[in-house]
Amino acid sequence: MNRQRNRRTGSRVKTRRLLQAVQQRGQLHPFFFRLGPVALSICSVLLISLMAILYLSQLGQAVTVNQQLQDLRSQQSALQRQNNDLVNTISSEQSPAYIAAQAGAQGLIPVSPQNVQIIVVPNVKTQQNGDGSGSP
User: What's the pTM?
Assistant: First the structure.
């Protein structure tokens, strides 16, 4: 029991001596505590203004990026409308009625099967029924 008390009192004495040495050197007090109220006020105003400048800078960058994003979205919607218009144009121009109307406008008329002339070339394989087999 005695040993434990000696250890406790010995460690307390050591910590007191250490604290006294540190206090004598002035290491426990930070730099800001030595400044007067005017200097602390100036430092705080400078820090607050720096934080305000950084905040406004970040806010400006966010606004710029948001504007660019809105521009890209409007371009995307315009391109989607243009694409839909082109798809509709292509589908209408591929319809048989449109092709027939354009052919009639150019003076072409449909041919009746009785007036069709078939030319037979010897030694050439023909395709029947559109199956691509190449057999006659």
Answer: 0.46
